[in-house]
Design a protein that fits this description.
36% strand; 36% helix; 5 helices
Length: 163
């Protein structure tokens, strides 16, 4: 009996020492996560918001650079469609310049995505200066597919000097 218990303890110990938790995504997941940012850029630049919607969960929460809180894929896609069909974003070009992926767990990732945006307009029709936007994206992996669960975007502005 003691021998059996000893064998069980040895087996459990060897399993624990050989099964260390993973601290990063495998290459396939890293590629898929980077492709989300690439697809976002592509769909933005061809102004195809229906395709952009394929990157979103149905229950996505999305806060745009204007501070508007959009809830659900249907609302996010519709609001972006309107903005890309009118003067505001009709001629805009988005270029991703940085992607940082934070490992949370195998089916949850946080990404910080930096983009340059040019060719867009203010609400009054005045051309905007090119700008830089940083987005924080929370992605979940469901049925072997990464989808955006939560998005918060903000314009990067120069810090004001204080006296």
């Amino acid at each position: 009996m003691r021998f059996s218990i000893l064998i069980v303890i040895i087996c459990i110990s060897s399993l624990n020492s050989n099964c260390q938790p993973v601290k990063e995504y495998d290459n396939k997941d890293m590629k898929a996560l980077h492709e989300i940012a690439e697809k976002w850029e592509h769909y933005w630049n061809i102004h195809n918001m229906d395709s952009m919607g394929t990157l979103l969960r149905d229950d996505v929460d999305f806060i745009n650079v204007g501070g508007n809180w959009l809830r659900g894929k249907a609302q996010v896609v519709q609001v972006h469609k309107v903005m890309h069909q009118n003067v505001k974003f009709k001629t805009s070009i988005l270029q991703t310049d940085s992607v940082a992926i934070i490992y949370v767990k195998p089916d949850l990732a946080i990404m910080h995505v930096g983009t340059g945006v040019a060719g867009d307009f203010e609400n009054d029709g005045t051309p905007r200066e090119p700008r830089h936007v940083i987005g924080t994206w929370v992605l979940v992996k469901e049925n072997n597919e990464w989808l955006l669960h939560t998005v918060q975007n903000g314009n990067i502005t120069a810090a004001k000097q204080t006296k």
